[in-house]
Amino acid sequence: MSAEGKKPRYMLVWGGLALLTGIEVATAFVVRKALEGFEIGHEQVTMLIILILLGLAVWKALLVALYFMHLKWESKALRWLAVAPLLPATILVVVVLMEYV
Amino acid sequence: MATMTAEPSGIPVREEHHPQPFIRKYIFSTDHKIIGIQFLFTTLFFLMIGGLLAVMLRFQLGFPGEAMPGGSILPETMAPGGIILPEFYISLVTMHGTFMVFFAIMPLLVGVYANYLIPIEIGTHDMAFPRLNMISFWLFLISGLMMLSSFWVVGGASRSGWTQYAPLSANPDASGVFTGQILWCLSIAVFGFSSLLGSINYITTIVNQRAQGMTWFRLPLVIWALFITAILGLLAVPVLTAAVIMLLFDQTIGTTFFLPGGGGQPLLWQHLFWFFGHPEVYILILPAMGFVSEIISNGSRKPIFGYKSMVFAIMAIAFLGFIVWGHHMFQSGMNPRLGMSFMVTTLIIAVPSAIKVFNWMATMWGGAIKFTTPMLFAVGFVMLFTIGGLSGIFMAANPVDIYIHDTYFIVAHIHYVLFGGSLFAIFGAIYFWFPKMFGRMINETAGKIHFALTFILFNLVFFPMHGLGMEGMMRRIYDTSRYTHLSDVQDTNTMISIAAFGLFASGLYFGVLFFWSLFKGKPAPDNPWEANTLEWTLPSPPKHGNWEQLPTVYHGPYEYSHPDMDRDWLLQNERPDIVSPAHEVTIRKGEA
Amino acid sequence: MSTHGAEAVQFEQTSFNVYDKKLGMWVFLASEVMFFTGLIGSYIILRWGASESWPAPGEVLNIGVTAGNTFLLICSSVAMVKAFAAIEEGDQKHLKLWLLATIVMGASFVGVQAYEYTHLIHEGFLPSSGLYGSTFYAMTGFHGFHVTMGVLCMIWVLGKAMRGHYTQENHQGVETIGLYWHFVDLVWIILFTIVYLI
Amino acid sequence: MDWSLPLNISTQGVQIDNLFWLIFWLTAVAFVLVEVGVLWFLWRYRAREGHRARYTHGHLGAEIVWTAVPALTMIFLGIYSGRIWAGIKSPDSFPKDALTINVTAKQFEWNVTYPGADHVLGNDDDFTIRNRFEIPAHQPVVVNLESEDVIHSFFIPELRVKQDAVPGKVIPIWFEATQAGDFQIACAELCGLGHYSMRASVVIHEPEDYERWYNEQTGAAQTAAAD
Fold first, then answer.
1. Is the pTM of this model over 0.95?
2. Interchain contact A83–B (C-beta under 8 A)
3. Which of B313, C59, D124, D201 could be disulfide-bonded to B352 (CB atoms 3.0-4.6 Å)?
4. Which of A88, A92, A99 lies nearest to residue B335, judging by beta carbons?
5. Which candidate, A93, A85, B193, B246, places its Cα nearest to that of C34?
């Protein structure tokens, strides 16, 4: 892991995660209210909020995977192993969603 | 890839060879070989159950409305006076499929042979996680017994087909089964966990524990097949587990995942089931292909033709296996555009299968073929699997599937693949590795009789089903006489049923032969088939822990008829320059 | 590589440079991804195709409590990683302390979830309350089950740590259970967003 | 059983049957090639005294050939069947001037709903017949399939029609019969203990007979409504 001598700064990651969670909750409520004040349709606001929230969630998940689960320091092969199941998972969800297209 | 020079393995020799009490040695054993053998006995039992269910349902189809001989011992709720009731018939169909797929074929391939073969073919002491391995077996046994017990609960066993299409399966009012249905779901959930523990073990062991020199492209093809199968199981079975749990919730706590009344989607069940179900089909055939590759190369005394393309074909089948599931759903009301894409991927998957068949043929070409029992079963596999593969093209072409979907054409296809394919390969494997597992031989003549009976009766049973399908005979119907378009299928059905009873009898004959050989068979030499892979360097049966010192591998597993050798085989841990024609020595320790 | 090589045969590496337990855990996590895909994927599909509209965030569920609970789980994850960092230095005392903190926070998470459930059931929001109820309870319930299992395993690991089982050189168990714990945290991060906030 | 497909009386059935026999002949060639090849090799290369197997690990050219030939065949089949599929199933393929009928399946019967005298479905004068499906020949028919309880499958072998009826969904299918006659609807999807007897009669009329039958029915329905 930290064989290179440089210790990962876990507390910094923790702070980041806490901050991002706060931003998420704020986005879902406060930012939404604010955005609805503008001249954009309700649908578009919802879409935008969803995209922002998903982006934040992926960011948080990446922080956990890279730092807490040490993927940042692992070999390429192990990193591939970690992301490989996302392929069939995505296939399943996307293909079934095409039912509604 | 990094290289390192050869040096004695740093892995400590495990504490072996101290006497263990019976319970630890044979019941709660962590030895991969014992666990493999435990799986073998249990799955042969479940195979017999599955066969017995088939005999009963074939009786109804062959002799509708007649009393089954001996059937009067069944309770009134199943077969009053020996006459099978429609609801019991559906239970029979459902449980035949369930037992054969989940509790016979799949664990025969994976539970038995992945456990038994992986450590002794890659050259290690045991699985990476022996205790998980033991738990996996016991969970499997529990789930199988749970499934079996559902016949005797109120309402009987599940009546929704092995595919458990919702809402029939999710709504007890529609199927008339409550407890049996819950048991089905629980059993499969437990089974899923057992299979998961197995997969973790197989993958970790193959990745991490290969002997020195056992590089990826020196692995026997059966190990490749089991490895890819484990990956398929790892990624596909959890989806089934999740789906089955949702189904269970629909039945019990009022959720509505698959119930349209509460906004649920019946087709979602089918998508989840077949997302598991199609990789499952390859779980059921890839290891069989692995066995056949071993046996055909061995029986032809010739290196396997196109080793690497065999490996890549396995990988291609596995990958494509995840994107073809919709071909089970062409007529399900799925978006027709999806039907189109699934048809294309399905047709493409025929290509790697074809490559494999041609490579086996090319392996036999120019060989010096020995007609051993395993070889006969392997050749039988190639001949029958080809039929199953070719009939698959009919249903892959979705316009034709409109007509033949859910008819006996499908039944013929699945049995050519799973019985003519997988089960023939399993029989071959049992004959091939029996000497190693139990230290005794199965009589060759008796084995060949078993092959001849099975081969002939199998074709008599299942080939005419293609014709029944062309007539339009639907699956899972209790009585064909209700339909005008099926007015002239009864004679064929009767003939099929009689042949099916014979097929079951040939299975029983095999059972007798198996147990007789267990005790009375001729003692087996270490390498009776003169094969190359590492397990044949061990005594028959191998000791706990397999090796005292781990072997070193110098070349691939199929060096038959090597020009530098007098004899026509070359073990993976032998070097031709050491095992010179002048003085043959076996490298195995302790025998020099 | 020649099969007829001289004495100094070169061998390609035949293992993965990752010890069995850790590799096994990653393989297990791969299957967990597929399990949660079954649940979360169903939720996405059912919600996408639902005919009636989905309740807005905060309408049924209490976001404030769960946001706090999310923070708790994140804290437990950082405690876990601190425990691992401690034993990497050979620091037994902090290993035990941080492990204990992880357990307490994990157990509290489950406790808060149980409180949330009783509250919701009291309000009349049940698994049988349509697709929303079905998917909510299935996803969060199975996540809670995973957390509970994690807490139990962690107690086992703590017991071993108490007996001085882990050393600076050998602490495979701590790292392996840590991977599981962070994965469960990661799943919650996704669930919190898509179930509570969207 | 005579190893043939039953009588075909639909326009789509011609394409389906032709594709079936095309695949039959393609697979027959492969079948003979493999089975005869295997048997021939077994005989020709049986172990004999003084004969040693050829030591070869493969041949790239041969492998490319037997990868490419099946691949090309499959691509051809895919394109060919894709067009037929689109012509039957795609929403654009539905004829505009079709007669539209609703069929609702439930355990274990088929309920067929016809438009009333106004020739429009979905209002009060529609009439429903249980287990009897009457249609005209030489005219495209669209059936909107529904199910009340579990999944059933609407199967008329002679029309080469099969489609699951899924609760919660309305699935349209279409076909055109080319001759009159009496047939049956069968249920092709396991739907419970009465699955084996979930059948309904199909009566295909010549167009003028259908007209007469339909007028009788609407007349009857109107009388019934008036009562």
1. no
2. no
3. B313
4. A99
5. A85
For residues B453 and B501, state if they share a domain. Answer: yes
**Are both B249 and B343 inside the same structural domain?**
no
d(CA B276, CA B233): 8
End-to-end CA distance of chain C: 57
pLDDT in tens, chain B (592 residues): 333 333 334 444 444 455 667 777 778 889 999 999 999 999 999 999 999 999 999 999 999 989 999 888 999 889 999 999 999 999 999 999 999 999 999 999 999 999 999 999 999 999 999 999 999 999 999 999 999 999 999 989 999 999 999 899 999 888 889 999 999 999 999 999 999 999 999 999 999 999 999 999 999 999 999 999 999 999 999 999 999 999 999 999 999 999 998 889 999 999 999 999 999 999 999 999 999 999 999 999 999 999 999 999 999 999 999 999 999 999 999 999 899 999 999 999 999 999 999 999 999 999 999 999 999 999 999 999 999 999 999 999 999 999 999 999 999 999 999 999 999 999 999 999 999 999 999 999 999 999 999 999 999 999 999 999 999 999 999 999 999 999 999 999 999 999 999 999 999 999 999 999 999 999 999 999 999 999 999 999 999 889 999 999 999 999 999 888 888 899 999 886 665 443 343 333 333 3
Domains and CATH numbers, chain C: 20-45+62-197 (1.20.120.80)
Cβ–Cβ of B159/D57 closer than 8 Å?
no
Q: Which of D43, D57, D60, D90 to mutate to test the interface with B (most CBs of B within 10 A)?
A: D57
Please report, for chain D, the start and end positions of each structural domain, with discontinuous segments joined by +: 11-91, 99-226
| List of chains touching A (3+ CB pairs within 8 A) | B, C
ipTM of this complex: 0.93
Of all residues in chain B, the one with the smallest CA distance to C7 is B6
Domain identity same for B230 and B339? no
- Tell me if chain A has a CB within 8 Å of the CB of B1: no
Please indicate if any CB of chain A lies within 8 Å of the CB of B267.
yes
Asked if B452 is an interface residue toward chain A (Cβ–Cβ < 8 A), one would say no
B104 belongs to a structural domain: yes
User: How do the domains of chain A map onto residue ranges?
Assistant: 2-69, 75-101
Domain of residue B333, CATH code = 1.20.210.10
B517 and B540 together in one domain = no
What's the structural domain count of chain B?
A: 3
SS3 D129: strand
H or E stretch covering D175: strand D171-176
Range of the domain at B562: 525-592
What residues have CB less than 8 Å from B229, skipping those under 6 apart? B109, B110, B114, B282, B283, B286, B287, B318
- Tell me the CATH class for D11-91: mainly alpha
- Judge if B543 and B512 occupy the same domain: no
Residue of C16, C179, C189 lying closest to A69 (CB–CB)? C179
Instruction: Give yes or no for a contact between B310 and B304, defined as CB atoms under 8 angstroms apart.
Output: yes
Q: Taking Cα atoms as reference points, which of B383, B375, B365 lies closest to residue B295?
A: B375
3-state helix, strand, coil in chain A (%, to 5): 80, 0, 20
Task: Name the neighbours of B, counting chains with at least 3 Cβ pairs within 8 A.
Answer: A, C, D
Minimal CA separation from A87 to chain B, in Å: 10
- Provide CATH code, domain D99-226: 2.60.40.420
- Helical segments of chain C, H only: 20-49, 63-88, 92-123, 130-162, 172-191
Claim to verify: residue B212 and residue B352 sit in the same structural domain: no
Verify that B353 and B477 share a domain, yes or no: yes
